[in-house]
Design a protein that fits this description.
single chain, alpha/beta, Aspartate Aminotransferase, domain 2, four-stranded antiparallel sheet, 14% strand, binds pyridoxal-5'-phosphate
Length: 414
């Protein structure tokens, strides 16, 4: 993994050039597009700070990135400058971060991790239907109980079944016997096609599914499957902290990834990333999108080009080395919290390559959880777990005061 960092001037110039390659609602004759630059009363484009703010400039110019531009061909020509930035971004994520071959992946900037996950499930459902004549009730999505709720949401929207795999309470790893039992049971009831979602970090624990063990089982039993990786949380940290990860396009059992800039990259909301091996986007083609040049292959349709620009700018500002340092600092900070918790005898879960520390609920009072905005595993009952997510704003001083208060609470209990 390597890419250079760029200076603010270089980034500014590049985005300026991209905007100049777009058609400008202000300067050109554009009669047929049902959109314009942003409302001038609220978003005036002569504010002096815009000169040095390529993201805000793009936001105001309001380019639409509808469709999937890595497919080449004749995508909407109006915004080709910033669409090229999006293509560069997808290429960088696919090839540098996820180890894909040169020009071997397609993708787009999605509204978030939820859409990117559902886009994957949609594509594989259509693939099984189109290529193998599968019926909806012969297709199932398989994921662990710690997976994000976008998986049941996707299965519900797409009218296919779900298999939810148990995880071990302490290790948060998928229980092998449960996997074997549930997949056999599904086959006995006529399921033939498996859309398997593996977590390159779960939301609550930062646990990373044991993809080698699961995919070996699928292969040994000659199951018909496609594997999608939910890297919405971990996608912009795990590849930077774990040099020997199995989660990359070098692993030919993996077909697609979700990443999410608006978590670890601190980009604005609307910066999910969907990346898939070439040859699959066609299964999400909506032929009826006849007014869109280049058609549409996404769930969302219209989307702002400013989001792609924001992601591209952040990745280029830090460079790969800068992000490695940043992400490793976060995991180091999480590790230091863990060593304090261990000294206090508090039970917790932490994956050393991730920045989440999840404490057993019985050690933390509701008062402390509220004071430090810890997130519980469930808002319904007494939580089993509370998590700390060590992000940029989580300063050592605040962590220290939390740990001191926790220690005082535990001492007073004993
Ligand atoms: C593992 C995982 N997948 C998917 C999502 C959904 O992402 P979004 O909220 O961007 O749609 C999240 C969000 O927390 C997540 O942690």
């Amino acid at each position: 993994m390597y890419w250079d960092k760029l200076s603010h001037e270089q980034i500014n110039t590049k985005i300026e050039e991209a905007l100049n390659d777009n058609l400008s609602y202000r300067k050109e004759k554009i009669l047929g597009v049902p959109a314009s630059y942003l409302d001038e009363e609220q978003f005036y484009d002569d504010a002096p700070f815009l000169e040095n703010s390529p993201f805000l400039k793009t936001l105001i110019a309001n380019p639409n990135h509808i469709g999937c531009h890595t497919l080449g061909g004749e995508a909407e020509p109006f915004f080709k400058g910033t669409q090229k930035i999006e293509n560069e971004l997808i290429e960088l994520c696919a090839e540098e971060i996820l180890g894909g071959g040169k020009g071997q992946q397609d993708g787009y900037v999605a509204p978030g991790g939820t859409e990117a996950n559902i886009q994957a499930i949609w594509i594989y459902r259509n693939y099984f239907i189109k290529e193998f004549g599968a019926q909806s009730n012969e297709i199932t999505v398989v994921y662990s109980q710690d997976s994000h709720y976008s998986m049941p949401k996707g299965a519900n929207i797409l009218n296919i079944k779900s298999i939810v795999l148990d995880v071990d309470y302490s290790t948060r790893m998928i229980v092998q016997e449960d996997l074997e039992h549930k997949l056999k049971q599904a086959q006995d009831t006529g399921v033939k096609y498996f859309i398997v979602v593996m977590n390159m970090s779960t939301t609550m624990f930062g646990s990373v599914d044991d993809i080698n063990r699961v995919s070996e089982y699928l292969d040994e039993n000659k199951l018909h499957y496609k594997i999608h990786i939910d890297g919405a949380f971990g996608g912009f940290i795990y590849p930077f902290t774990n040099d020997s990860s199995s989660y990359s396009f070098k692993n030919d059992r993996i077909s697609s990834f979700t990443l999410d800039g608006h978590k670890m990259l601190q980009s604005p909301y609307g910066t999910g990333v969907f990346i898939i091996r070439k040859g699959f986007m066609d299964y999400a083609l909506t032929e009826e999108a006849s007014y869109v040049q280049g058609k549409d292959y996404t769930i969302c349709g219209s989307r702002s080009g400013a989001n792609a620009v924001a992601l591209w700018m952040i990745l280029k500002t830090h460079g790969s080395d800068g992000l490695k340092v940043k992400m490793r600092n976060l995991t180091a900070k999480a590790a230091s919290v863990c060593s304090q918790l261990t000294k206090m005898g508090v039970e917790f879960y932490q994956n050393p390559y991730l920045n989440i520390v999840t404490m057993r609920g019985n050690y933390v009072s509701a008062h402390l959880a509220k004071k430090y905005a810890l997130v519980p595993d469930s808002h319904n009952n007494d939580p089993n777990w509370y998590k700390i997510v060590v992000m940029d704003h989580v300063k050592k001083g605040v962590l220290d005061s939390f740990l001191m208060e926790l220690k005082a609470e535990l001492n007073s209990k004993n």
